[in-house]
Design a protein that fits this description.
The complex is a heterotrimer of chains A (about 260), B (about 600) and C (about 100). With about 260 residues, chain A is an alpha+beta fold. Chain A has six helices and five strands; from the N terminus they run αααβββββααα. The longest helix of chain A has about 30 residues. The N and C termini of chain C lie far apart (about 65 Å). The chains are: A alpha+beta (about 260), B mainly alpha (about 600), C mainly alpha (about 100).
Chain lengths: ~260, ~600, ~100
Amino acid sequence: MDIPYTVKPRPDTGLYNAKIGMWLFLASEVMLFGGLFSAYIFLRVGAPAGTWPHGWLNVTLGTINTVILALSAITTLLAWVALKLNQFPRYKVFHALTILLALTFLGIKSYEYRDKFLHFEVQLKDGRIADGHMVENKRDADHIVLHGHYVENRAELMDGHTKGKEHTELKIPRADIKRMQNYGPAHNNFLGIYFCLTILHALHILGGVLVIAYIWGPGSKMWFTDPERYTNRVEVSGLFWHFVDLVWIFLFPVLYLT
Amino acid sequence: MHATTQTMPHDPAHSAHHEAPGFWRSYIFSIDHKIIGIQYAITALAFLLFGFSLMAMMRWQIAHPGQSVPVVGPLLATLFGDVAAKGVMSADLYNTFGAMHGTIMVFLAVVPLLTGAFGNYLVPIQVGACDMAFPRLNMLSYQFYFVGGIIMFSSFFIPGGAAQSGWTSYPPLSLIVPTDGQTYWLLGMVFLITSSLLGSANIITTIIQLRAPGMTWLRLPFFTWAQFVASFLLLLAFPPLEAAGVMQLMDKVTGSSLFLPTGLAVGGKVAEVAGGGSPVLWQHLFWFLAHPEVYVLILPALGIVAEVIANNTRKPIWGYKSLVFASLALGFVSFIVWAHHMYLTGMGTTIATFFQTTTMIISIPSVIILTCLLISLWGGSIRFNTPMLFALAFLPMFGIGGLTGLPLGFSASDLHLHDTYYVIGHFHYVVAPGTIFGLFAGIYFWYPKLTGRFMNEFWGRVHFWGSLIFMNVVFMPMFAQGLAGMLRRMSDGGINYSKAQVGLEGALSPTIMELNHVILWGAVGLGLSQIPFILNLFWSIKHGEKIPNDNPWDATTLEWQTETPPYVYNFRREPIVYRGPYEYSVPGCDKDFLPQNQPDQPTSKP
Amino acid sequence: MSDAHSESYKNYTRKCLLIFLAVLCGTGLMVGASFASLASGVRIAMILTIACVNAFLVAGHLMHLISERKMVYIVLVFTVIFFIGLMGLTIWAHADVPHLKGV
């Protein structure tokens, strides 16, 4: 079955099918993340005073991830340029770099998630709050061990920039604990929307990696039969990849920096 | 193969290994848009019937609360156990059926029929293309739809049953119902939305890129225009609901509280949630889709009606350009009216005024479209066949639905009417005798193209008159009930409310309550009226009257200019389009219609 | 493969690398601004402005939006309008709830 304009652009629109298709898809993606960003603003503006945390995320890791994603955007473009210049081995290198960088991004992201899941806020029966990373949480033990510090008031935890007291090993008897909760999505709305946004973004990265890996690996046979169409595929997957980068360009400042 | 060449790709060597695929490749995993369209049609029609039967059982419960449902009562008791003990529908089961009736009708039946079935089958042929732009993606979108449907359907049989919180799934209610039905609902929706997004991007690309030579924008049949606008609505309005669905899934699965407010009490106790979320946020994101969705429901139906009316009045559609630009305007404005569903959320007067204004503005293009179709009848020599009867009935029924919407668009009157049966009556007039009549018209009209046979005309008329009468018997009394103050979603039909209020202002009079019986019998009659249709649909495949030629209705658009059923790549030769879509009764021609691909007479050639 | 052809792609590669550096600088500026002792509204506005510049560089040059076809522009213009509508009207509705006034 030969559908027209899969390779050559249609004269009156100047586009080949996959390109307009990808732009339409990206338009819907704009609305998807638009809905989520609107939700973010809505929740943040509507949060009662003093309940929206600041500086809870690791800016260093966020910055590194921003650089990684920006770099992968460049490598995917260089891969496309290599195909345009008929340099297939060079293309292979650059696209492989894209995949590796994307996987690194996901690795760092999962490390950040793990850090949040190990981070606990423990409300004690005497009103104090122990806050820190779980060191020991054995089911049969009568105590837990936390690497952190005590605060009197939850409000003290809301600004991550102001470091409280030195962190030490805290041994807390289970009998003293009123409520214990990690910094997962259920902790508060900032973390809820943070996980929601970044999980969805990470799923897009994962989807992008799978597609790029297919094009790079088994799909690359097409280069020898239909190079022009193959180049188009790389270009269109690049469009998606840049969009994912674009979303992160906003996610990073919105979640990590403001 | 480049499109500048005239022949479609069908060299024998090429098609040899294409035309002999096995059963699975030809019918189940087909990438032919026509087969996919038929797959959509069969699945969606099955869901339409299923959604209707849910409603029929609910109407029994409303009219006779606490009495065992006749005929299917024992089946209900077997399938659902305690919630349908002795065949009596409990409030929980009623809520489940209500939520799923709406969900199934909108997301699994009517929209897939309009865009999935009709859009898939007709749009590529009407623009003169050999298939959709992305055939594999097309197959994938059907499969997503199918999986979404399976998830929704199977949720009936999990412990606790399907979702219970209305098709709108407003939190916090949807989140605090302690069963898993809502999780299934959300998962199902994510699949259905993904399917819609892929499908609509495909239809738009097809219309932009694959128009045959000479098929300029203003030569597109109105049906294709309607599909184009509806696809844009799906493409851009659905993602915010997908975002909201993911957020609600987070709330449901991970225990976050994006939609749960601070201080939420459940069963008299403060809920163990972080709080700080906003239920109103869900309503914004939901209605951002669900209002444009109304136009997704109505535009393709208007497209079908336009085709049928032009064909059966034997004259051009009056104001083709007005129709096109009105539907573009309709699509645009439909994105900024959504909060008229939310006047009761404590919205301020400024923003309410904004949304009232846009709501009134959107009635202008709607009236333009309806008026164009109405004036198109003027002076035509109308052929009254079954598709035309449905198309003609569509006009006043949709008119009633549209006009009764105006009081809902004003916040002052909406405060009284909100969540009453008036609303139910209003949107059902738009969708049931409106859109579904359009769908019936389309099915009777294009059936010969798919099968080579007409559907039986006599039983078609029986179907039509039964449906028309009983639709009105069902939905007209709802306006009276709603104005009297009967609320929707009450599993006993308002009997307890009415008893509690005897002699007081706001009590429902016996007359109003009695209408529940009228509606029940109307619903039964409506169900019986569909039997001739179902039998006709299957019987006519083999036994219907054969069509005399490939263009039995003497139509002008491209789908009638190819063989029946269309060749696998639709056209043996790529069609070239010379004229607009509705050149009927052109003076000085020997026939009363000029197909779009018919060249000008040699004498008139420059 | 003509020399002019490969020359134009070499220039393009150079442009991409410049954009990468610009995005890096932007990111650095954002992080720096987040630690600046400014009123929070000013700080957020600064950071988001830099983010928009970065986004423009990526969308405009890496995605070739500054020299794209009319059809793509039409699609995106409508998308942006509806996006602004979604975000703007939702926030406006939130701000206009009567009992929240003056809080």
